[in-house]
Amino acid sequence: xxxxxxxxxxxxxxxxxxxxxxxxxxxxxxxxxxxxxxxxxxxxxxxxxxxxxxxxxxxxxxxxxxxxxxxxxxxxxxxxxxxxxxxxxxxxxxxxxxxx
Length: 100
Description:
mainly alpha
């Protein structure tokens, strides 16, 4: 796995947090009082990084999940923290399956 510098991480983080896809996902989640799936997070980030590596897309999906948890879930209490942790594991496991 390639190491990501702090500057690269910040750039990736900012692109994910400011993306229209994440904004729409958060808006739908609030409106429908439903949580996004691990696949939802992978799809919005793979659309951002169309030619990106699986590691980059996975890291971006985890950033999107963290942002959703802080901005939506902690405010509207849609799912408990253990379920957020499970979504994170599913994102990682999904990237392993897609990698082969």
